[in-house]
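Person: Show me a sequence?

Helper:
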Amino acid sequence: MHKRYIDPLSDFGFKKLFGSEGNKDILTAFLNALLPARHQIAELTFRNIEFQGRTEFDRKALFDLYCVAASGERFVVEIQRAFQHFFRDRCLFYSTFPIQDQAEKGH
């Protein structure tokens, strides 16, 4: 008998296990077990953004989640396994989007 397994650390495996509305509760519980108390997720939204890159050295986003904590803070969770050049720059860039959502809007 041949058994098949899904690697949860691969893009396909993670999405298969966690990437649907039906499994949102499981994913939220999993992430809340990893996150500190002040960042416990109250609301989670899937962002279907994938950048495969033009070459093997280009950025590859494997999975993005947009989260709202019980405090109302917004943050992005990205599951990333591959080495990334300019990781800090990318984190800074990504962090601007939830900050923009939280900022008061001008006239």
Remarks:
- The two ends are 66 Å apart (CA to CA).
- The chain has a mean pLDDT of 77.
- The CA atoms of residues 32 and 81 lie 20 Å apart.
- The beta strands are 41-47, 64-69, 74-78.
